Amino acid sequence: MSSAEGKTLYQRLGGYDVIAGVIDDFLMRLRSDPRFARFAGGRALDTQQRARQLIVDQIAALAGGPCVYIGRDMKTSHAGLGITEAEWQANRQHTAAALDKFGVAPREKEEFLAIFEKYKDDIVEKA
Ligand code: HEM
Fold first, then answer.
1. What are all long-range contacts of 50-54, with beta carbons under 8 Å and residues at least 24 apart?
2. Domains by residue range for the chain, with CATH
3. Tens-place pLDDT, residues 44-55
4. How high is the pLDDT of residue 2?
5. CA 27 to CA 96: how far, in whole Å?
6. Ligand 1 center–CA 3 separation, angstroms
7. d(CA 60, CA 67)
8. How many alpha carbons lie under 13 Å from residue 13 in its C-beta half-sphere?
9. How many angstroms does the Cα of residue 78 sit away from the middle of ligand 1?
10. Which end of the chain has fewer surrounding CB within 10 Å, N or C?
């Protein structure tokens, strides 16, 4: 994913630390939102950290960074969770808020959100 100037989204965002920071902030927002409480229960800290690391790796790799995603595909990872359109929209709002907190510019913000958006059909199961 290169821009006209030849820089990847990964580089334009500011690299790994910015991506990890955005994901951590986004996950913190999900954890404090009662609409996502049904996804939080019964998961050990290590399981939560594993999922966090996989999301960071996946975004960093898709943004053109020197990372490799070794997790499962998005359809397999979310099948059976019954994720709804409303949950998807709320998830997107939290992502946008985390990107704003880190001062990500509009163009990079759109590109980041587009990475999430292309998995929507694999993740959302209910209208
Ligand atoms: C409403 C939106 C979403 C919800 C509620 C959600 C929820 C979850 C949950 C509960 C898991 C753990 C599944 C399990 O192992 O039992 C998971 C895994 C995961 N999710 Fe999501 N997710 C959402 C959107 C996304 C998006 C947009 C991405 C990135 C494109 C993503 C990336 C991942 C990854 C990488 C994993 C770990 C895969 C693995 O364990 O191999 N998720 N998600």
1. 52/23, 52/24, 52/27
2. 13-123 (1.10.490.10)
3. 999 999 999 999
4. 61
5. 12
6. 28
7. 6
8. 32
9. 6
10. C
